[in-house]
Design a protein that fits this description.
The structure is a homodimer.
Chain A (H helix, E strand, L loop, with lengths): L2 E4 L3 E7 L2 E8 L1 H9 L5 E7 L5 H9 L3 E7 L5 E6 L8 E6 L12 H4 L3 E4 L4 H10 L6 E4 L3 H6 L1 H10 L2 E5 H8 L4 H11 L3 E5 L5 E5 L2 E5 L13 H16 L4 H18 L13 H15 L6
Parallel strand pairs in A: 1-4, 1-8, 2-6, 4-5, 8-9, 9-10, 10-11
Antiparallel strand pairs in A: 2-3, 6-7, 11-12, 12-13
Helix pairs in contact in A: 1-9, 4-6, 7-8, 9-10, 10-11
């Protein structure tokens, strides 16, 4: 396995201006894995309840995702209820039921512990640290995501984790909250000071900005006619980003730039339909075509 | 003269987190003209009061700007007082004194009326229409800007104007207000339905998106370490955008793309210091260097 991801697997109840779904497969590890699966071999560490649908297992397996680390526990799968009604860019959480996720203790097999790429999706930074410590060798690249909750209640563990990763992928608002800086380049530079050589600031419909070692790179969002469900866009970005890097097995500047566009490509698919409905049914030519649309969206000629 | 611009010339009192200026040269036509002057010959139509500083006349003349249309009237120059304290992206207007601008009646000489490029900066759409009607020939390209005030109180005249221009340059919020569409591509498409073949949506620190005939182009904002004063960024963008188009004398897709980056380049200089302090002192190599920084900010390799 080239990439190991640890994070949530969930059933989400979601309402957007485009409609409502009572219970759709979601969770950061799920979105990440399916997006990354188009580029490389992915293994998931997570937990589901005894209500987990065999059809969802079959979907993950059909993407050659290694789910040997997806533990089935007694109880119900993690459930998130949210809506994007006032502002399509901002999720309002209506309810969170941790269920089996509340006592989640990641356990790694040898195959997991030897993965060269590691993505620590948004969970308690103490668990993220535990997974990083459990790796047999320091992976070639470790990236993580986080959220406002952990900045509020687990800042020391989060700061320790960030000091140990190569890349932090974080929302703009959370980057500002984490660093206390209002201005984006200042926030990115404060994060660099915490440890990571790359910081990806996710800006929703405004795209993402990558701050690397002595360069920055602006990836736009694709101006889609219709955004159906923004859930999972950030994790799909991460899946495309890490999936591409693992596939070329390089983390240099040039690869990071292309990876950010691959991430934006996968995020653009994620929001086109509810949950994983679009992302799970892609072909490689769909991906290549959308990547080319990003080329067209951003290309310009020299100044004459 | 290649470009004629009609719009405000002002003295602004501005406060930003970087400091405060009691009275600095501003106004849409001023920012536009100085930015465009690095690319082509510009003529301004506007009005100033008898308090207008001869040093400001000298500065405009030093940029070879034709100010034969800048009328001096009895009274004081238009004065805008604003601040950007809570949010550097949003100007809060504290006071507006129209002064001589209140009875402004644009008058065009033959040289003005034959300009092949026309920019109608943000003023009463009835005046914008009057200038367009006064042109001897239909210019090769006409673009305009507007603001929430005119959408509120002069929508019919504004809609008539928009039906006659080639390009509308407008802030994201105002594009949404104008069209009643919450989603950017929908707003752009509604504007296209009103007439213009190109719509440039200005998104402040998120850059600008150009919606043209069968293409869209995303121009990022430059991630500056320090934004000192956002006043005039949009008009400096317009000046770079139109100035470049007039200099190559083409308005095809390829030229529009490059022009949007030239616009972003000029906007990035505008915000680096108060008022015109940075923009008025540029060299052509400063501009070429910043343009190259945009190339570096956006370039990426094909998917392998």
């Amino acid at each position: 396995m080239k990439i190991l991801v640890v994070g949530s697997v969930a059933y989400d109840a979601v309402e957007t201006p485009a409609g409502k779904r009572e219970s759709q497969l979601g969770g950061a590890a799920t979105y990440f894995s399916v997006a990354a699966s188009y580029f490389t071999e992915v293994g998931m560490i997570g937990v589901v309840g005894d209500d987990f649908d065999p059809a969802d297992i079959a979907m993950l397996e059909s993407h050659d995702i290694d789910i040997s680390g997806l533990i089935k526990a007694d109880g119900k799968t993690f459930r998130w209820t949210g809506e994007y009604m006032e502002d399509i860019n901002t999720a309002v959480t209506l309810d969170t039921q941790l269920n089996v996720f509340g006592s989640f203790e990641p356990e790694l097999s040898d195959a997991h512990a030897n993965a060269p790429y590691l993505f620590l999706a948004n969970i308690d930074p103490n668990l993220q640290l535990k997974v990083l410590d459990a790796m047999a060798n320091r992976p070639k690249m470790v990236a993580n995501d986080t959220m406002n909750l952990w900045i509020d209640i687990a800042k020391p563990a989060l700061s320790e984790l960030i000091s140990k990763v190569d890349a932090l992928l974080i929302n703009e608002e959370e980057a500002k909250q984490l660093t206390g800086e209002d201005h984006l380049p200042d926030a990115a530079s404060a994060i660099t000071g915490m440890g990571p050589s790359s910081t990806v600031i996710k800006r929703g419909e405004y795209g993402a900005t990558l701050f690397g070692e002595n360069f920055s790179f602006a990836a736009p969002a694709y101006p889609l006619e219709r955004v159906v469900d923004p859930t999972g866009a950030g994790d799909s970005f991460a899946g495309g980003f890490m999936g591409y890097l693992a596939s070329v097995d390089k983390v240099d500047q040039e690869s990071l730039r292309t990876a950010a566009i691959v991430g934006s490509t996968m995020a653009s698919f994620a929001v086109e339909d509810f949950g994983l409905d679009r992302t799970k049914n892609l072909t490689h030519s769909d991906i290549a075509e959308r990547f080319e649309a990003f080329v067209d969206l951003t290309r310009f000629n020299p100044l004459t």
